[in-house]
Every structure is written in structure tokens, then in C-alpha cells.
Amino acid sequence: GDSVTQTEGLVTLTEGLPVMLNCTYQTIYSNPFLFWYVQHLNESPRLLLKSFTDNKRTEHQGFHATLHKSSSSFHLQKSSAQLSDSALYYCALRTQVVGQLTFGRGTRLQVYA
Amino acid sequence: AQTIHQWPVAEIKAVGSPLSLGCTIKGKSSPNLYWYWQATGGTLQQLFYSITVGQVESVVQLNLSASRPKDDQFILSTEKLLLSHSGFYLCASTGGAAETLYFGSGTRLTVL
Questions:
Q1: Where are the domains of chain A?
Q2: B70-93 tens-digit pLDDT
Q3: Which chain A residues contact residue B93 at CB under 8 A?
Q4: Peptide bond between residue B8 and the one before it cis (omega within 30 degrees of 0)
Q5: How confident is the model at residue B62 (pLDDT cuts 50, 70, 90)?
Q6: Is A50's CB within 8 Å of B59's CB?
Q7: Which strands sit side by side in the sheet containing A76-78, from one edge to the other?
Q8: Could you tell me which CATH class the domain A3-112 is placed in?
Q9: Which domains are present in chain B?
Q10: First-to-final CA distance of chain A
């Protein structure tokens, strides 16, 4: 079945440093859709980024990610972390319209001053 | 744009008591609907999904059940709560390009 791997459970950074959260996936389908969701404390997850074209960079709110089918990856990056970026980040995979969106286990990003 | 309303916002219940959580979708006809659960500090766990009225598929039961009595309504329930049911319950619906998943604001359940 489909799977999403987020290797880091917790990433801690000093404000101003670059952010990179890893996401790799496995699927037999040739046209996957990948998403990043962000969940702040006591809130529900909200969509941050989505991409469904190979090697195309997608950007939103200072974050960016590029889907690389060759390496089955969709890493989340930001050039300079802010305190307000502290949250739980989920990578998710969709390969068919109906039924399941496969989530990774999530990476908690903690940004310190 | 679709909106997802969940009720109640929070519940404190006793072990062994019944539970009913609700979710209403506005702005999209015949939505695909989902229930997710998140233990405190834990990851998202899909519980159920439904693509049409009266049809619900279970992913992980956790001694819970779900029903879809109307096109725009999804209900999560149990007759007997366990301590392990505590957590954050999220209703979600798909929409837009690539059927993106959108979440409601959630219900925080504490079982004592």
C-alpha cells in the first residue's frame, strides 16, 4: 500500500536559520498528489502546500516544496525560520480521488529566539 | 467555498458514557467525508470515510461507529466511552483540485 515517511519527529531551530523537513513516499501509482499540512497548537490542520506536477516548485507563505518523482520526495523548505513557524507539519499522499489520504507521522518544528 | 462545522467544540465525559459528535458540510454537494482522531501529542489517524449517504467505510474502529444520515452530515458515536477515546476528533471533506482535504475545527474530547 501507499506510505509516507517523515524521518524527523522533532526539528529544533534558531530563528533565522533555514528550514528543511523531509518527506518521501512510496506508491505504485504514477501520478501522485503530495500535500503539506501545518497544525498549530490547539488548532486543526490546514493546507500549506500542494503539488502534482513533477519537478515543479510550489510556494506559499514563504514555504516551498518540489515534487521529485525520481526520488519520491516532497521536502518542505523555508529560507528563514520564524517563531510563528513552530507547529506540527504533516506530509500527505493522495493517489486516487476516493477513500484515503495517506499521512506521514508528522514533524514537530520548534523555532527558538 | 465549503465550510465544515463540528459540534461540540469540546466535551468532558465519564468512562462508560455514550458519545455523539457531529459534522456538517456546507457549500459542496455530495462531499466525501472523513473522521480523523489525534491522541494528545500524537499523529493523525483516519477512522472512517463516506462517499455517499448511508455508506460508511471503517479504517480503524477503536470501538467507535460512524453514520451518514444526510448528504451534508457525518456523525461519530459510541455507546460506551473508554479512557483511550480521549483526544482531538477532526471531520474532513475533500474539494477543489486533486480533491484536497480540508478539516473542520475539531472536537476535543476528554474522558475521565
A1: 3-112
A2: 999 999 999 999 999 999 999 999
A3: none
A4: yes
A5: confident
A6: no
A7: A19-21, A76-78, A63-66, A57-60
A8: mainly beta
A9: 3-111 (2.60.40.10)
A10: 41
- Distance in angstroms (rounded) separating the CA atoms of residues B80 and B58: 18
C-alpha grid cell for residue A108?
Answer: 514537530
From chain A, pick out residues whose CB is under 8 angstroms from the CB of B103: 44-46
Q: What is the pLDDT of residues A79-98, one digit of tens each?
A: 999 999 999 999 999 876 56
Q: pLDDT tens digit string along A9-57?
A: 999 999 999 999 999 999 988 888 999 999 999 899 999 999 878 999 9
How far is the CA of A17 from the CAs of A56, A80, B23, B73, B75, in angstroms?
24, 5, 40, 44, 44
Of residues B94, B98, B103, nearest to A45 (C-beta): B103
- Strands (DSSP E) contained in B15-86 are 19-26, 33-38, 44-52, 55-58, 65-70, 73-78
> Per DSSP, what are the bridge partners of residue A13?
A111
In our burial notation (b when 16+ CB lie closer than 10 A, e otherwise), range B24-40 reads bbeebeebbbbbbbbee
